[in-house]
Amino acid sequence: MDIVITGANGAVGTALIRYLSEGTLIGAVHLRALVRSPAGARSLHALGAEVIIIDYRQPEALRGAVTGADVAVIWPAPCCPDAGKRCGRPMSKPPGLSSKRPPRQASRRLYI
Length: 112
Known about the structure:
Number of strands: 5
Low-confidence stretches: 82-103
Structural class: alpha/beta
CATH superfamily: NAD(P)-binding Rossmann-like Domain
Oligomer: single chain
């Protein structure tokens, strides 16, 4: 299973990658860790994740990063127009991902 996780170098994202990399829950996985900066990337790579540095304000970059994934776990905060700032309100979906799934985009999305 191919899983993309946004905000992967945060506390929750790192814990999720650590948990999923153990493979006990769903078997073998390929983890894509999306981060804004290389800080902490080495530790994610050590957990077996493919680290992708991305600018969340670029919808095409986000779309490309989730293409082909089975599941995309998307934290709301990185999807705000001003990266790094809290939204203060729930978002129905991040910019760049339509509600209609084009072929090859993530087949399932999980908004947390």
